[in-house]
Amino acid sequence: MKLKIPIKCKACFNKMPLSILRNQKGVTAVLVAIVAAMLLGFTALAIDVGYMYSTRNELQNVADAAALAGAGELGRIYLTLDSGDQGAFEVDDNDPDTSGTYRDRIEAAAQDTAVLNQAAGESISIHSEEIFIGIWDWDVADPANALTITSTTPDAVRVIARRDSTINNPVSTFFGKIFSFFGGSADTFQVSAVATAALSGAATVDEGVLEAPFAISEKSPCVGPITFSPTTTSCAGWHNFFTDDDYDANASDFATRMIATIEGFDGTGNEGSDWLTDYFEIADHKLPPPEVTDVTSVGELFDFSGGVNATLFEGGYYPVWTRVDEDPDGVVSVPSNPEIYPDGPPEDTPVADIIEGQIKTPAPFIALFDFFRFRDGDGEVVNNPSSGDAVDDMVVLCADFSEIDAGTVPGSFTIENEVGDDVDVVPADTVWTTTVPVYKEDNDEEGCVNPTGDIEVIGFAKVHIISPNPPPDSTVIVCLDCGYTIEPGRGGGVTAGNVRGSIPSLVE
Q: I need a labelling partner for 3 at 20 to 30 A (CA). Which of 11, 25, 86, 294 fits?
């Protein structure tokens, strides 16, 4: 379509300067205005998005701190409980140190820590409903699904920290309101963060903690005798502690080190050497130098030797005084259920009514057992359901432990645990409670391999050594609790063994 111009206007148009028709100065101003608005919008967006991520990081720090505080308080609670009470711990039970429950105490620790921290200039409060207590499953790959909420023997605390419309208010943006000119609305944003802290396996044990010269495989069953043979089923082995010391992994050096460990006991001066020379036919000058095991960490190598090593059970035993029966004809016999006086008979016991044990060169492992079972500090108060009395200095054995008849042990009784199983309780001085290493099992098939040579330590386990059995058995009856026990110290994310540190680690 052609544009028709009146003749007189056409003449005027033809007379206009060409420069006026080609003038584009206004176009540049318009383009600058458009680009400036766009740059301002992108700058505002960058600043507010950066502020959002900064607030998110601050909020994550708050959640981390609160979760660690809550799990740390859980660890401290466990340390106030005896081992038996640890296994029956309920987070909703009343806390004797406060007017509330243990849950209230854990939640308060998390909340008090959170409010000391800020996100986007605001002190952060946390809803009690968003503090979750449960058990962390280390084998679950997705952290979001690894926490099982439970009130029974928990080991982890999860916290959600927020700045949104439900608590602490949304965060105001700096420039988001300018988008309202374009029909948008971004004057605030909402953000949250999740963190979980758990009591993980101890990565290190202190000097002198490892006293027993054997370790268990990561495949070791929870209860039963440690037989050391056959190697495919025993799942345990003798070790000589570290690989770079003066002892080799053989029966002779094992025996020497066991005696040296007794001497190195941190008691009253020469308590270990005095005990050895008092009860056995062994002279001071023939005792090896005292030994105290070093600080031990996961990942270190121990020198192992598989097999029974029966000589470790051969020799004399700690003197035991036992009440004996005398018939009318003067024949003395030891009763089938004797009274054992491990520290000597009562003063009013007639000499004719006691019999002494053997006194000669000590059987190394049995001597180790007899020495430390009186010095392991494992006694606790347990209520006897039959008498109604609170009995001091007792040890609660593992559930389903049938390797010994605890009823034959003087002073023992049976209780019912939290799941209704019968559990034996025995006097503390009849068992040795100690910590042993857990070694890595490279066998992918069912069963265990013979632990020989340098093998990696991957965790630690607390065990009750019930009885060392001399030849021909040459076995050790051990109760290994499938649960866990909390000890002072920091966890390291270790899952092998049943010893957990009281200081938590972040796991999510």
A: 25
The Cα-based distances of 366 to 197, 220, 306, 370 in angstroms read: 41, 22, 19, 6
- How far apart are alpha carbons 93 and 360 in whole angstroms? 52
| 129 and 255 part of one domain | no
Run of H or E residues at 113? helix 102-115
145 and 291 fall within a common domain:
no
> Which residue has 């008090």 as its token pair?
112
Ranges assigned E (strand) in 169-276: 171-172, 188-189, 191-198, 201-202, 204-205, 214-217, 223-226, 236-242
Last residue of a domain, one of 148, 169, 198: 198
What is the residue range of 169's domain? 38-198
Read off the pTM: 0.69
- For 127, counting Cβ atoms within 10 Å of its Cβ (0-12 exposed, 13-18 middle, 19+ buried), the class is middle
Q: Evaluate if residue 265 carries a pLDDT over 80.
A: yes
More confident residue, 335 or 485: 485
Give residue for tokens 């070791």.
220
pLDDT tops 80 at residue 376? yes
- Of these ranges, 99-103, 216-220, 248-252, 387-391, the one predicted with the greatest mean pLDDT is 99-103
Instruction: Report the distance separating Cα 275 and Cα 265, nearest Å.
Output: 11
User: Of 318, 238, 244, 331, whose CA–CA distance to 281 is shortest?
Assistant: 318
Number of domains in the chain: 2
The pair of three-digit structure tokens given for residue 490, joined into one six-digit string: 């920091």
pLDDT at 388 over 80: yes
Q: CA-to-CA distance for 165 and 387, rounded, in angstroms?
A: 58
For 5, the token pair is: 């111009």
For range 70-80, the mean pLDDT = 88
Residues 151 and 269 reside in one and the same domain: no
The answer to whether residues 266 and 409 belong to one domain is yes
The answer to whether residues 222 and 481 touch, using CB atoms and an 8 Å cutoff, is yes
Q: Select from 177, 198, 219 the last residue of a domain.
A: 198
Contacts of 139 by beta carbon, 8 Å cutoff, 6+ apart: 495
Residues 174, 287 share a domain = no
Q: What is the per-residue pLDDT for 132?
A: 96
| pLDDT for res 482 | 65
Whether the Cβ atoms of residue 453 and residue 380 lie closer than 8 Å to each other: no
Query: Which of 385, 468, 382 shows the shortest CA–CA distance to 432?
Result: 468
